[in-house]
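Reposting from the mailing list since nobody answered there.

I have sequence plus structure tokens for a pair of proteins and want to know whether others read the tokens the same way I do. The first protein:
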Amino acid sequence: MSILEVPYGAPREWRVRMARGQPVTRRSVPVGVKVALTAFVVVLFPVYLDAYGPLHFLWLSDVALFMTVVAVWRDSRLLTSMMAVGVLPMELIWNLDFLALLLVGWSPIGLADYMLDPELSLLLRGLSLFHIPLPILWVWLLRRWGYDRRALVGQTLLFWAVILASYLFTDPADNINWVFSYALEPLRWMPPRAWLLAYLLGGPVVVLLPMHLILSRVADGGAGAG
């Protein structure tokens, strides 16, 4: 670990240490974690591509997985914070849904019901277990580096780009990222474009902003470089 100049908005722990005249270090992600995560994605990518096709990677959870690989290699607090503020809630819900599926054999939300689908290979379902360690990794990185408040704007822009791409380029039958309906059946009480607009505006307000306020409170790292 090398001693770094502390940028504006660095984690509170760094500022306290600087005020005390103590050395400040930025803790890089261990190489073993970087290599393991990268190796996993190298295995997952061709398997998913063959089974689902390239547009499947527009799922926000898949985008978050790939972005996390970049984040750990670049030691990027901003990218980590963007994934946490935007995708952490969905990953936690997936885990609760999967836990219910294991305990009672029923997926109350439907996010994880495919995990017991016998038509999907064990390899596909096993690779999908990345939903379990991914939020743990984000929390660990937030504790290590702090939350970057620029993530709200960055993730909002990324969210809009992914949702629009999902709407424009994917099959409504796949309903990737729920851009055509919040349920399996098409919406009958609301025009598709109205739902899309509500989704684009509501996502940042209902999910991103509350998460931003929570993370700013519990893991504040300011808005500095990184």
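The second protein, same order (residues first, tokens after):
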Amino acid sequence: MKQQEQREVREARKATPAPHAQVLAQVALAAVLETATAELYVVSEDGQLMHASPSARTRFASLPDVAGPEPLMAQLPGAKLRWLPAVDGIRYALLRRPEQSGDEGPLARVREEWKLTRRQVEVLQLLAQGQSNRVIAQALGCSERTVELHIASLFRKASCESRTALVAKFWRSRG
């Protein structure tokens, strides 16, 4: 009987994430949202905004109160809705509104001024956070060689000769 109880305790521990794991997940989500070029919203079933990217927070403040993700989506042209797995019995939706060509903002200005592709913007954002080529490749699901090619292209487009100069120019251009 003792072995059965121990097994049940082990299974319960596996099924219940440690509090620090939940905190790390929250921090990771916030970090991802802070660098997103698209409008990203994490909304509870009742319409409460739980997390958002900077551009999403700005737009959300100007929208009328909504009673859930679907009505919010109706206020966001081009938005896509995806339901996430329930956490502690609460369902959340991820709404994503792609960056629009007319969107203003520091990152949009850099993208337009340097004529960057979406992928180059993603590489530049991770580079600006001090990430290595290996980490960037893992984050984007590509090879390190592909990252090197994107960085070489960024050097040409930004008229820079080093990572340091590129990142400095990026932060200056963002304002």
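Reply #1 (J.P.):
I read it the same way you do. The mean pLDDT is 78.
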